[in-house]
Design brief:
Strand content: 5-15%
Low-confidence stretches: none
Structural class: alpha/beta
Order of helices and strands: EHEHEHEHHEHHHEHHEHEH
Strand order of the largest sheet: 7-6-5-4-3-2-1-8
CATH topology: TIM Barrel
CATH architecture: Alpha-Beta Barrel
Radius of gyration: 17 Å
CATH superfamily: Aldolase class I
Bound molecules: 1,3-dihydroxyacetonephosphate
Length: 253
């Protein structure tokens, strides 16, 4: 059975002390609740807090992810963080191709593909984001957009490499807007994505791939979203900044 994953993307939020308080709050919530044994919680703080968050617990509580990685190996790339650096800090996951990085930092599918390669080379699981903007959805082009992102960003991988990848479908119009995709809209695209994987790598690989939903996911709507057969968890922004809300989502399975 493929893994259920609930990952918190803190984005550029929290001072060091606030971040420390948040992880401590998440740990407290974890002590109080029982997670489904197939659910993996992942916390993706800003780079400077990775070590602090990692030091909090062992993998039985949560795993730690970065929010970005360089597409280059090493060297004169001021301000960048490499996959080798993340690996040397035992980081388990890394978000790649988030719509904010695509929009504000001009991250193309080609760059996403190179970042994925770097991560896999160092044994870090990429959480690869895809999703359409509002105008694309209104024009009925969401399937074309997602297909291009998945094909150009990921389909150069071998089946074995692809087995390490997690996909996050995040419709851009639902991110931070309070406007969530309906469970039907989410299921429709998730099933479409799984179909693409079946075509490329076969049913066995597709059945093992976790496909997460992201975009205004909250404790109040997580259950109905996660009830869909092809929705295997969530990539959570705003609601991951409050321990209770985050754990409310993590326990929605
Ligand atoms: P929100 O949950 O704040 O809509 O953000 C979703 C997201 O972008 C997670 O990566």
């Amino acid at each position: 059975m493929r893994k259920h994953i609930v990952a918190g993307n803190w984005k550029m939020n929290k001072t060091f002390q606030e971040a420390d308080d948040l992880v401590s709050g998440i740990m407290d919530e974890m002590e109080k609740t029982t997670l489904d044994s197939n659910t993996q919680v992942v916390i993706c703080p800003p780079f400077p807090y990775l070590e602090m968050v990692s030091d909090y617990g062992d993998d039985s509580y949560f795993m730690v992810g970065a929010q970005n990685v360089s597409d280059q190996e090493s060297g004169a790339y001021t301000g960048e963080v490499s996959a080798a650096m993340l690996e040397s800090m035992d980081i388990d996951y890394c978000i790649v191709g988030h719509s904010e990085r695509r929009a504000y930092y001009h991250e193309t599918d080609e760059i996403v593909a190179r970042k994925v390669d770097q991560l896999l080379k160092y044994g870090i699981k990429p959480i690869v984001c895809c999703g359409e903007v509002l105008e694309e959805r209104e024009a009925g082009r969401q399937f074309d957009v997602v297909k291009r992102q998945i094909t150009d960003g990921l389909f150069h991988l071998t089946a074995e490499q692809f087995g390490e990848v997690v996909i996050a479908y995040e419709p851009v119009w639902a991110i931070g807007t309070g406007k969530t995709a309906t469970p039907e809209q989410a299921q429709e695209i998730h099933a479409f994505i799984r179909g693409l994987i079946v075509e490329k790598y076969g049913k066995e690989v597709a059945d093992e791939t976790s496909i997460l939903y992201g975009g205004s996911c909250k404790p109040g709507n997580a259950k109905e979203l996660f009830a869909n057969p092809d929705v295997d968890g969530g990539l959570i922004g705003g609601a991951s900044l409050k321990a209770e809300d985050f754990m409310g989502i993590a326990t929605a399975f």
